[in-house]
Queue: 2 jobs
Job 1
Amino acid sequence: MLFGRGKKNPIKMVDKKVEKWIYTTCGYCSTGCSIEVGVNAEKKAVASRGVGDADVNRGKLCIKGITEHDIFEASGRGVEPLIRDSMHDDYRPVDWDAALDKAGSEIQRIQEKYGRDSFAIVSTGQMLTEEFYTLGKLTRGVIGTNNYDGNTTLCMASAVSGYKRSFGSDGPPGCYDDFETTECLMAFGSNLPEQHPIIYWRMREAREKRHFPLIVIDPRVTMLAQFADMHLPITPGTDVVLLNALMHVILKEGLEDRDYINQHTNGIEAVEACVKDYDPVSAAKICGIDEDTIRTVARLYAKAGTAMSIWTMGINQSTHGSDGVVGINNLNLMTGNIGKEGGTSLSITGQCNAMGTREWSSCSGLPGYRALENPDHREEVGKFWGVDPEFFPKKRGLTETDIFPAIETGQIKGLWLVATNPMTSMPNTARIRKTLEKLECLIVQDSYVDVETTQYAHVFLPAGVWAEKEGVFTNTERRVNMVRKVTEPYKNSKSDLWIISQMAKRFEQGKKVHFPETSSEVFDEMRALSKGRLVDISGMDHDKLEAARGLQWPCRDDETSNDADGNKVGDPRLYMDGKFQFPDGKAKLIPLPYIENNEVPDEEYPFWLNSGRLVEHFHTRTKTGKVANCNKFSPTAFMEMNPDAAAELGVEHMTYVRVVSKRGDAVVLVQLTQRVPHNMVFIPFHFHDCVNRLTLGLLDPHSRQPAFKQNACRIEAVDQEEAAKLNVELRNY
Ligand SMILES: Nc1nc2c(c(=O)[nH]1)N[C@H]1C(S)=C(S)[C@@H](COP(=O)(O)OP(=O)(O)OC[C@H]3O[C@@H](n4cnc5c(=O)[nH]c(N)nc54)[C@H](O)[C@@H]3O)O[C@H]1N2
Ligand SMILES: Nc1nc2c(c(=O)[nH]1)N[C@H]1C(S)=C(S)[C@@H](COP(=O)(O)OP(=O)(O)OC[C@H]3O[C@@H](n4cnc5c(=O)[nH]c(N)nc54)[C@H](O)[C@@H]3O)O[C@H]1N2
Ligand code: SF4
Ligand SMILES: [Mo]
């Protein structure tokens, strides 16, 4: 019988009464999807939809994008500036002038008393590029502290460092279109279907049209691993060993591209000598991948007409993060797979504008991939801004991960946090709490007042979020795309651009340097500074970006970036001519001897503690935690545990356990799953007072990025009722 036939109502879409759709770019991950947000007659954002003619997402969005209009009026938004004299007092609401006066005078007081570098600034990968650029100008050109960094040190620093070491500059050389032609894809520590769902969709579509082998290297059976042809469940932290072994096989069997190596690289001899020690039999003992698989993968990759590698945090967040990136670059250079359609080494970036901060924020140098260490660069930027080049430091200062220890030791006395939440996202958060308590002044500039850091702040500056502002983001494939303003900043919050420029006015030097008021004027400054650089955006402007649904850099202000009709187009790939950013134009092949330096499981702490993300949540949940259609799928912290390991310890599915590391403990609900091996547990890092109470975060020596994913822990029984109560308290926080 056909149930209800003829009686059933047809499905009706709820009419949201959208009056106007406004073009913008998603503010969560670095895929860079084009979104239209629907606003109703009251100018309230009520719907989101993918943009059909945008090359990146072709009409698609993931769960976060499709619900993104809900973040504007989500609970916990900052509504007015707040100040207080000590972290034990209550906050007082004040007007913007009073809040900025207090912040500005505290910065100056601290700098006068303890020196210029005693005040630190830590920013983000989530503001608009124009805002990054302006914060960089304020920090480098006016405030003058050298202890200025971003949360990208927790995220992309190893990729940046690895690209610089191999190619002489940062800048991912490939693009999503490479999936269309590649004949072999390796993915290291990257879970595309959950973390970059639309990049995954692009890859899957290409692979459905024309099957090519997908090899996933990840200690967990991630969703991407489930779709792979081969899954290599690597021992955590040992990717460099696997990479050396792959190169060993390739060189031994003569599968390398000698012509490419000879014409475009230096250093092959040193790499040959180093990888001699990494025969598959010896390597297998360290990296946990058997010798035959190593040989098969090496042959598959080297014999493919074109082959590409992608990676994300499984590589970057490791004590060998930068070396892992260099290893991937080595492999691709050695097989002639750089600057070629379908042959590339493409870091899958994290936050929506982690690329923008790398290019323009001046965190690790000066704008447009310029270096503080280079006197010509200091001169150029100094002249352009009207700042004495001697005012700039001559080398980079502390990274985020070194700024917190410097607060502990008293070297740094004041901190301005812009759009980042280290109380949940840094390793060993108990230590971070104690560190923040020591500050004479903490300024928190965030869109949400319930961000945990406000517990320790003296000044809170409420900022507009995402499309309450106008400017650009750059995505994983170097595509600069337009974020149009959909709605005004919530209540009395202000755009970060406005806050930063107003802060400049509190400084004598800030009155002399020009701070433009609109983001398109700021963009014009960036265009001018970009001319002739690798990151050339001189052919772009805001309107062209919207019309093209984003343009990739380099995109020059001359006919080299025009299509047949005279429209602007960017270069889809870098290094097509085999010329790299070192003085002799050659890339570097670098030997990577492996030294075991991780915290590894032992008798007392027998499990690997791994951590990462879930599709429906973004980071510390200041946004997705309040969007019902995201939060309802993962409302509470949980831990993946292997059923066999659980049976041995008497742990049952959906009961609470205490997880203990050398740093501290956390109580968490257990989900039994074969996704993790017998000796590993995995906890998403989205939940406050959870996995980062346990992590150690040893640092990569080149990038200073923490090894979030390789720590040791043990599991203990806990009173179920107490644990449930604690869990409810945390959820309601
Ligand atoms: N839904 C959602 N999407 C996001 C984000 C989010 O918070 N939520 N955040 C964005 C940001 S900022 C980032 S950086 C990206 C992160 O994107 P991904 O890096 O893809 O995500 P993670 O879950 O952090 O880690 C990926 C995998 O690394 C594996 N791994 C752990 N140790 C190792 C190892 O030693 N070797 C290898 N090969 N793999 C290892 C883990 O098992 C995990 O499955 O996602 C972006 N997209
Ligand atoms: N254990 C473990 N820890 C990790 C990771 C892991 O895999 N495991 N991953 C690391 C990685 S890759 C990353 S990127 C970090 C992320 O770490 P964080 O940057 O600390 O995390 P978010 O929650 O994204 O914090 C961003 C803050 O900026 C605010 N915000 C958003 N948009 C705006 C805006 O336009 N203006 C202003 N002023 N504020 C805004 C948000 O409300 C939020 O409070 O976490 C790291 N921590
Ligand atoms: S894939 Fe990333 S950019 Fe695209 S809608 Fe989802 S979160 Fe936004
Ligand atoms: Mo990230």
Job 2
Amino acid sequence: MARHESGRAKRTLKAWRPRTQMVHGGTVRSGFGETSEALFLTSGYVYDAPEQAEARFKGEDPGYIYSRFGNPTVTMFEQRMCALEGAEAAWGTATGMAAVNAALMCQLKSGDRVVAARALFGSNRYLLDEILPRFGIKVTLVEGTDLDHWKRALKQKALRGTRTGAPGRASGTTIVFLETPSNPGLEIVDLAAVAKLAHAAGAQVIVDNVFATPILQRPMEMGADVVVYSATKHFDGHGRVLGGVVLGPKEFCDAKVMPFIRHTGPSLSPFNAWILLKGLETLDLRVRAASETAAVLAEFLGEQDAVKRVLYPGRKDHPQHALAMRQMEMGGTLISFDVGSKDAAFALLRRLRLIVISNNLGDSKSMVTHPATTTHQRLAPEERAHLGIGDGMVRLSVGLEDVEDLKEDLAHALLGAKSKGKARGRVALQPRGRAR
Ligand SMILES: *Cc1c(COP(=O)(O)O)cnc(C)c1O
């Protein structure tokens, strides 16, 4: 697929630092010389002559054919993402889930394997638990924090390869898929170590880097082959549009991702790409500011009687704090904390006056959700308990408000959680049994 790329854009892409890339990366101006990126809200393109149309379909003429698989505004977003991530190629998608699905389904076939960390976003789990197995794809879930589990799971593949007569080689493709930090338990997977194990087993590593964002964590520098994002979250950052992106080696994107998107259609709308381009301009500022506030709030929450436990990668008591600080620049914009029971969590949510109840995240507005009854409702109670998603867990996505206002709101709301906790006597940290 030929793309419009000016020589100037190409040259500067390499030279600029990330914060500059986020403002200028990928910009291609039309003949009108607009300052802001142009919004090409068009589904198709006209040709000067039938010969030109023929040449474009043959890939001999550099130009757009149809916005399902190419649009100048979408290209600008993709190029800016490449510059930011340090990736060779990128494809925008309609949503984050479309990006995850495209990254996997563009290459998997019956008999292949996916080895994935167990702690994942709810829809990622549905894709792995319910959809992939229907197509004969084997899915092995491991404890993402335990390197021995990864080792064992990746070894299984080698054995299978040996049985089919190709010593040490896989009979099918193996893909490693993970999130770090995970949603909502904020588990940290050792990216460099897992990538090394995966590559030794001939597996490709796909990382869902939504929680950390490319500002705080650069998985490709630690060995990831492909990185996927929900652009809906921090990239937009203002809760307006859905979007996603797959980033990876040029060959993979050209040969696998592009035809999959072209012929199945999970494409990013030019309008959404335009919104996302604007979001990226302030991504660095927003993510750093929200992470600073989150670090303060995590400490604040840790001091509250009604809070049984705080999970925040930037806090010293996080089980993998040292690893988190090695592979992330800051602790991130998300905090999970436990108030002991569903009643206490609901009481807290009801009493909040500033922080809104929403399962979205990465927004300029702070948001709370109760994962056990929303994003991770589908999982069996035992599986939730296993993942540490107790009925008392609350996930807070920290926005850009004044930290003092957020503290006051949480302090006021926690009085509700505390009285609920008292009224019911001592509450278990991870209650067993039904969520509802
Ligand atoms: C939200 C989210 C997704 C899915 O993104 P959508 O844009 O909502 O489809 C995938 N992974 C993680 C970690 C997310 O938080």
